[in-house]
Write a structure and sequence with these properties.
By secondary structure, the protein is mostly helical. The protein contains six helices and two strands; from the N terminus they run H-E-H-H-H-H-E-H. The chain has one domain. The longest helix has 38 residues.
Length: 171
């Protein structure tokens, strides 16, 4: 009898604890679209990316021109000249490949620039969400835009506009 009563008491406490938790959602895509600094940072990244891509394409074009010249002159070149031309073409292609890795690789310049531009914005959003959660006693906030398993959330628990207001970007 004591075990049954204890089980019922534990189940009641567990039910109360589960009900006491409050959840909220945010839509990070929506929030970021409404922050001008994010749009400026994205534009800056796109411009830099285009400059770097142009630089790489220029080197690739040089390598292609060198190869075409080599093909047209290869019959008239000595073995040493042919090897030197092939080496020069390979070096130019390697230069383009290395530059591409340096700019666009996993730890390349674009990644570093994105981190330096986006980190302050993300930190500001995180702090605003944290303040709202602490003041309204939310246990968890889920990002609706990236939560692949979130099928439905009530609009009443979406705090995206509240985050924008907290950041000073209210509509």
């Amino acid at each position: 009898m004591k075990k049954i009563i204890l089980t019922i008491v534990v189940a009641c406490f567990a039910a109360v604890a589960v009900q006491a938790q409050k959840y909220a959602t945010v839509d990070m895509e929506y929030i970021l679209k409404n922050i001008p600094a994010y749009e400026r940072a994205n534009e800056q990244l796109n411009q830099q990316s285009k400059r770097w891509q142009g630089e790489i394409e220029e080197i690739v074009a040089e390598a292609e021109a060198m190869y075409k010249k080599y093909q047209s002159e290869s019959a008239f070149l000595s073995d040493e000249q042919r090897i030197a031309s092939e080496d020069a073409i390979l070096a130019k292609e390697k230069e383009a490949s290395e530059l591409k890795r340096q700019y666009f690789g996993p730890s390349g310049e674009l990644y570093k620039k994105r981190e330096s531009l986006m980190a302050p914005i993300q930190e500001e959003i995180y702090n605003a969400v944290k303040e709202i959660c602490e003041s309204k006693k939310y246990s968890m906030v889920i990002d609706r835009s990236s939560a692949g398993s979130l099928i439905y959330s009530a609009p009443s628990i979406d705090i995206s506009n509240e985050v924008l207001t907290k950041l000073g970007y209210s509509e």
